[in-house]
Amino acid sequence: MITVTRPRILVVGAGFAGVGCVRRLERRLSPDEAEITLVTPSSYQLYLPLLPQVASGVLTPQSIAVSLRRSRRYRTRIIPGGAIGVDLAAKVCVVRTITDKIVNEPYDYIVLAPGSITRTFDIPGLTDHAYGMKTLAEATYLRDHVISQLDLADASQDPDERAARLQFVVVGGGYAGTETAACLQMLTHNAVKRYPRIDPSLIKWHLIDIAPRLMPELGEKLGDDAQKILRKRGIDISLGVSIAKAGPEEVTFTDGRVIPTRTLIWTAGVVASPLIGTLGAETVRGRLAVTAEMNLPGHDGVFALGDAAAVPDVAKDEEGAVCPPTAQHAMRQGKVVADNVIAALREKPLRPYKHKDLGLVVDLGGRDAVSKPIGIELKGLPAMAVARGYHWSALRTNVAKTRVMTNWLLNAVAGDDFVRTGFLSRSPAKLKDFELVHAYLTPEQLREQVGGKGPAEETSG
Description:
Blueprint lengths: L7 E5 L3 H13 L6 E6 L3 E3 L4 H5 L9 E3 H4 L5 E11 L4 E6 L4 E5 L2 E4 L3 E3 L7 H4 L6 H20 L3 H7 L1 E5 L3 H17 L12 E6 L10 H13 L2 E5 L3 E4 L3 E4 L4 E3 L2 E4 L3 E3 L10 E2 L2 E3 L12 E3 L4 E2 L16 H19 L13 E5 L5 E5 L4 E2 L1 H14 L3 H17 L16 H4 L8 H8 L4 H6 L1
Parallel strand pairs: 1-2, 1-8, 2-5, 8-20, 10-11, 10-16, 11-12, 19-21
Antiparallel strand pairs: 3-4, 5-6, 6-7, 9-17, 13-14, 14-15, 18-19, 22-23, 23-24
Helix pairs in contact: 1-9, 5-6
């Protein structure tokens, strides 16, 4: 009797890229064509662009955590854990489950979409004292932390302590940092009427970036408009400046200023997941070097996309141009990779990833926003409508759309609630507690775990 085994497709990561790929595979493959498995530590897809609104309390955490059990068709097997190594020669992915069990997951086709982690530098005290804004837990904790600073400042009899607790520093002038500073500043601004013992002039937000401009992708005019909006709201913007060192009660800027603060938020970019380093393959600035079809040269059945892959940007004439790590690209790449996996499965030609830019949206909280849809520059209410309309339409389920819309309407009518949930209040929640860069396997550990040729041996042969 001959046993027919279905090809095994393994997708690593449940971000925009991974979930987009899985959804398309489920739609376009019949159940007997392949077995689909998804590796992710979370049972949801996080809609990252709205994370600052969770930190500011405009949205509840559940509203932007789209359940995989709702958005998938129940064909995909989900392994609750994180991939910590891939042996390309043995075609095995090593997974650490959420119970810390190490398992080997064999595959015939693998789609690597592990995303990225926060980019940090060798700055004294940074990972010990800074808060990140990359995960749902970090955003939720940050909201509790900011409200606790208001509570403690209101109760304090020490003017120096009160002033320090009411100063907040955000590092990173990209979309994440700018929106985080804008949304949280609005939260603390609205708090004044609820905290009568706090002098509003003591609440100070600092947004700094080593680059000469905020969000340079917006262009000079819209970038300047965003700066004017933020400065008008009292946010101190310093460009060409970064952090020299961080302590528990103060932060030193590279221009020599020392800011007494209990809140340092680090959003200065991302780097590819450390999983990519376990492959022993060529990288471009830490991202896996792939073809325009998003497959790994020299390895049949290996695809990579999203933040972890340097996907050539064929829409640009510039040599060596790669697609930036944005949600817009990840969602589109997921569909193309799924089609290419199916094409490889059916022995048909692959197609390259080519995109048309839809534009950019930046929600600065309240009625403030700047947007550039299909090249049209907008600010104020029209920009806010475009930004929120785009985010709302990009949510994958009607339940998520309903929750987000309800949250927006409720916040517009009732305003902010200054409630600390107590989430992680007894646990550390700094950068070092979330970026588990030491959890990944070395080439030697990978060879030992799989029991075959590891990436180092394979590459040398």
